[in-house]
Amino acid sequence: MRHSFRRLSSRLPMESRFAVTCVSVLSLLASAWLTFPQAASAADKLTVYSGRAERLIKPVFDAFTAKTGIQIDLLSSGTTELVNRMKVEGDRSPADLFITNDAGSLELARTAGLLRPLNMREVERAIPPQFRAPDNSWIGLSGRFWIIVINTTMVQPDQVTSLFDLADPRWKDKIAIPNAGSEYLQAGVSVMRAGMGDDRTKQFLQGLRDNAGTQVYQKSSQIVDAVAKGQVAMGIVNHYYVYRHLAMQPSAPLAVVMPDQQEGGLGAIMNVAGIGVLKHTPRLDGAKLLIEFLVAQAGQKMFADLDKEYPLHPDVKADPALVDRKSFRAALVPLTKLAELREPTLQLIEQIGLR
């Protein structure tokens, strides 16, 4: 049979012999395709570098996978470490997306040329412009506010109305604060500098340092726990740490003070968790699907219900336990300024000697 095929093909014109050969090759490929198991398509997987705790973001990604079939490979680490890693990896980075809990870090990634601008109608409909980069190279997903958590058996809410009150010597050895490496602290101090000036911010940090003493914590959950146990009277944390604690221990003597609402006050310091698509990704369609899922009402509701964060979609309501978003105002410092403010903020924090 093989000999007959060769004889036949040798008598055909060149064009016909080429066609016969192609048909034969295609037949062999088709046979192999049916015989061997198919490898998983790269389009069915996304790699996400995450500066967020895995327990907070994984349930949302699992819901995305259940809906689309696209698997998420999650690499979690510190935000600064991930930004530096992406810079070193460049176009060779396996990451398709970068998600973290600080707009300043997202803006740093954007200015370093790591992120891809996006033209997505779904994003522009769902997320107000103040919560995303001008070119949509990063998009805010959920909001968090820097608040004062108090032990209600030790402090009355009207005794403290501003973050700056915590620098008063009357609170010496009665407050707990994040450590100097906290991105929350760095972002908060940056907003203070922009809104109130360096001199007042410096005075605040000096008083905070003196009043906290050794009550300096690496994790915000530890601050809430210390306040709940009465080890200190107050602490500074992002709001959701308090509500997550209360969800597990409803009888804990905790309350939230939304600070600096008085006339002339700074307003509550806000930051956002957000996401960006890496510039080099070959899986842009899948990355866009993930972003579309996260900004849609269903995805936004998951951030509200699971993580006790404020959804950024105007039609999605926050958990009713939270302070009503319409009842307080936020500081007016644009989120995009957090990146340029960071370096002098770090220098000020080091100068003050915060631990």
Which terms would index this structure?
globular, alpha/beta, D-Maltodextrin-Binding Protein, domain 2, disordered N terminus, ten-stranded mixed beta sheet, 355 residues, 13 helices
Describe the structure.
The chain is α/β, with parallel strands linked by helices and about 350 residues long. Helices cover about 45% and strands about 15% of the residues. The chain is built from 13 helices and 10 strands. It has helices at about 1-10, 15-35, 55-70, 80-90, 105-110, 120-125, 185-195, 200-210, 220-230, 240-250, 285-295, 295-305, 340-350, and strands spanning about 45-50, 70-75, 95-100, 140-150, 175-180, 215, 235-240, 255, 270-275, 310. Strands 1, 2, 3, 4, 5, 6, 7, 8, 9 and 10 form a 10-stranded mixed β-sheet that branches. The longest helix is centred in the first third of the chain and has 22 residues, at about 15-35.
Cα separation of the termini: 84 Å
Mean pLDDT: 89
Q: How many structural domains does the protein architecture include?
A: 2
Order of helices and strands: HHEHEHEHHEEHHEHEHEEHHEH
CATH architecture descriptor text of the largest domain? 3-Layer(aba) Sandwich
The rough form would be described as globular
Structural class of the helix and strand makeup?
alpha/beta
Count of helical regions: 13
Q: What is the radius of gyration computed over CA atoms, rounded to a whole number of angstroms?
A: 27 Å
Number of strands: 10
Spans of at least 5 consecutive residues whose pLDDT stays below 50 are 1-41
Could you name the CATH homologous superfamily of the largest domain? Periplasmic binding protein-like II
CATH class bucket of the largest domain: Alpha Beta
